[in-house]
Amino acid sequence: MIPLAEAREHVLARCSPRGPVPVALADAHGCVLAGPVVAPEAVPPWANSAMDGYAVRAADVAGAAHAAPVSLAVVDTVHAGAAATVEVGAGQAVRIMTGAPVPPGADAVVMVERTRGGPHAAAVEVLDAVEAGRNVRAVGSDIAAGTVVLGAGTLLGPAHLGVLASVGVRRPVVIPRPRLGVISTGDELVDDDRPLGPGQIRESNRPMLVALARSFGVDAVDLGTVPDDAEAIEAALVAGAGTCDAIATSGGVSMGDVDLVKVVLDRIAEVRWMQVAIRPAKPFAFGVLDGTPIFGLPGNPVSSMVSLSLLGVPGLRRLAGRADLDLPRVAAVAGADLGRRPDGRTAYLRAVARWHEGRLVATPVTGQASHQLASAADANVLVELPDGDGVAAGDEVVAVVLGLPG
Ligand code: AMP
Ligand code: MG
Known about the structure:
This protein starts with a helix and ends in a 5-residue tail after the last strand. The protein has helices at 4-13, 158-166, 205-215, 230-243, 260-268, 301-319, 373-376, and strands at residues 21-22, 32-33, 37-38, 48-49, 53-56, 70-78, 92-96, 108-111, 115-116, 123-126, 136-137, 148-150, 173-175, 179-185, 189-190, 201-202, 219-226, 246-250, 270-275, 278-279, 283-289, 292-297, 329-334, 338-339, 346-356, 359-364, 381-385, 390-391, 396-401. α1 (4-13) packs across α6 (301-319) and α4 (230-243) packs across α5 (260-268). It contains seven helices and 29 strands. The chain is elongated, with a radius of gyration of 31 Å.
């Protein structure tokens, strides 16, 4: 057996980021910026009002108070989207809406709540003094033109897309999300609604692995099920490698007579078959076929989920150019005694983590066998239990986050 870290390093050494391409903003979510983005424009592009109110000269209203209002002549009204052309002279004000350009001559905005007057009144009474600059959003106060607004390697989240749009960058150059093809193998697998024949079970890994990969930022596609037949497996792998950036197979990498994924990969790819010192998901094959990484996951449903989470995700995120290669790890406390026997392996217990009285409490689901997907389905973390005798309820543990705790 080899440590998980060694298997992970083996994978990472054989996965490198895809080439940069320009993409539409709508497709850039979850992608990594290939280079820095320099803002071609300032945001805001001109000084504008942060409030609905009156643009004034601060000096004119320096003595204003509720008991001693200052009356100003209203010489114009300016809305968002309009140009401010009328200059504010001494003793004058311009009625202004949020987001409208501050007119020349004015240096502050008094919010409408601090005034008396009305939409069509010729004069306004200002009830409060304002200092110069109050309620004015200065040119470039969000982003100055010519500055690096987003650095190379930024993982683009929703607000980053908004930032790019705000400076007029419509097609950022990114490392595209990798396309992962998911293939299941096994003569026993049925993937439609026909009644099960002798020895048959329903295929469950493809929908799960496709959704899991997508939830981790990968564009996954379902490439179907192939029987335990070397030729069929080879054809599926070759076809998949032609259309995808990576392939994940499930099944056929253990010690059985028809564990043929291993055999085929040995013949057509550069492959390493590993016994990883983890439970579940000990068997793992990693191959490269014409430059396409292939993750040979074990077939047991829970094992394939854990294997993709711990070994697939870092490799796929490396292809995506991401710096955050692994699923996040957090500190939690064990919600129950987590007993185990020493066996040279790190256990990854499927658990439900909840925020409880100021702590994250991770309670393992009942049914930890690697075929018990129904119980594992509720898990939002994998509790990492080092080799040994386990830990007691209340002890601190490390949890790998699969989904955010509620
Ligand atoms: P294998 O890794 O091919 O030896 O499969 C291990 C166990 O997982 C066997 O009990 C298989 O029947 C089961 N299995 C393999 N692939 C799948 C699948 N796609 N869906 C459900 N069970 C599977
Ligand atoms: Mg099999």
